[in-house]
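Reply to dn_fold:

You asked what the input looked like. This is it:
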Amino acid sequence: MWKIFRFMRKRDWGYAFLCLLLVAGQVWVDLTMPDYMSDITRLIVTPGSAMADIWIAGAKMLACALGSALLSVIVGYFAAKLASNFSYTIREKVFHQVTDFGAEEIKRFSTASLITRTTNDITQIQMLVAMGLQVMIKAPIMAVWAVLKIVGKNWQLSLVTAAAVVIIMTVILILMRLVLPKFRIVQQQIDDVNRVTRENLTGLRIVRAFNAEQYQEDKFETVNQNLMATQLYTSRHMAVLMPVISLVMSGLSLAIYWLGAALVNNIPVTSIAAIQERVEMFSEVVVFSSYAIYVVMSFMMLVMILMMLPRAQVSAARIEEVLAARPQVKEGKGAESTEKGSLAFRNVSFRYADASEDCLHDISFEARPGETVAFIGATGSGKSTLVALAARLYDATSGDILLDGKEIQDYTFDQLYGKIGYISQKAVLFSGTVEENLTFGDASHPISQEDWDAALDIAQAKDFVENLSGGSHANIAQGGTNLSGGQKQRLAIARAIARKPEILIFDDSFSALDYRTDAALRRRLATDLAGTTCLIVAQRIGTIKHADKIVVLDEGRAVGIGTHEELMQTCDVYREIALSQLSQTELEGA
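and this is what came back:
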């Protein structure tokens, strides 16, 4: 757990040291009060004591109480400031780390788990730091200081106090052994609740369309019940602590006064010196009782932390797991090339991290500058995986991918994504305006209004954007939920075109477009972006039949490469796909 504190800033360590000094001062003030209580007790039972002396001792005791309260407020302020600063730093680190993750790391942790780790888990750490500086530091200092105050005063009373401490420690250790494994499960179950809730909200239309509300409610009820049962288990066990400690504290006070009364009575009243000795013993019992209660109170404060510590430990381990993860796709040192827009795959194979065999086998092809290379094949044949390698969302397991004649791994991310415009299968838009989505991210050159106006026109999105309320300043909801699927795809395509990349990668990005819009968009790509290399994944023969080169994939292997006419003659897989979509007459007239 303590590894995570390496991210604390120097200023925060200063706050922590200041809190330590203030807590030590508070403990000193608290443990000074019983001494004044002893003086007051002695003055009250001693004949001839002056009232002024009692008032002075009482005033000192009141000053200690006020000083303790003031120091407690100051410690609370700095503890809260440090905790909020620390959680801000950790949240920033986690967010930046997740931003650097590739598709493989996102798949490993899952989106629901990463959201929980960025929110709930960090909150657990923040609560522990805020409470820990006030309680976890104070408790051991107070316990040790109080023990030093009473050690050697009376062995009988010390033995009773030691027995009380042993009982409390035994109960704490037993409970920690029982509940600690459950705290690990709680955070995983919060992930499950988050996942089910997110799935339901994302697919709300589908849930209603299929009348599956009850199914989703039962699904949520299951994960919610599991979380509740685990939390009830831990809460019920931890609830035993406070009553046990209260019982031990009351029993300790009773035992000290009972034993103290016996010790006082054992001193015979035979002389003035004996009476004075009885007064001293009585005063010692009163002070001993106060210090013993402070010792038990220290353990009560530790219990408060121990109720939070196991869950915070689990949260810290989950956060550290994210921070320690090293993305598989690493940035290159930089490469310079005189070529523009060429891409070559040479004997490329790829296997997912959790797979037992390759999903792409020995793929080789070349896209020259300005060419359009299309990929077609059955579902699951590896088309999207192949273009994901071209966009370097993954690194090839074997073989070489050359971009502009250089290894793709050699480029920095700025260089690489300045050359590539990637449009994913699912069009992703961000909350904001149309303009903000079109100029999203960094480009190799500033994106001007003329750039994104032209991009909208090429992507066949200009007309519908102009009809939106506010035009290019119209608001886009999170995920683009206020637009149709075709509108989202056209804006996603325009966003990539506006960057003026050397290579455009369309990962089945025309699927939501009607045939007329599809054809118009492809014509504009061929005329306005004639010098741009295009990689197109598509299911429609009509979308790709005019491509310069078509790569046919079947079970991860390239079973045919050529033009539409060549493949109709030489590739059975391509011919079968083509005939399933278009008639022989339509194909011959194409």
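Residues 11 and 476 are 41 Å apart (CA to CA).
Hope that clears it up.
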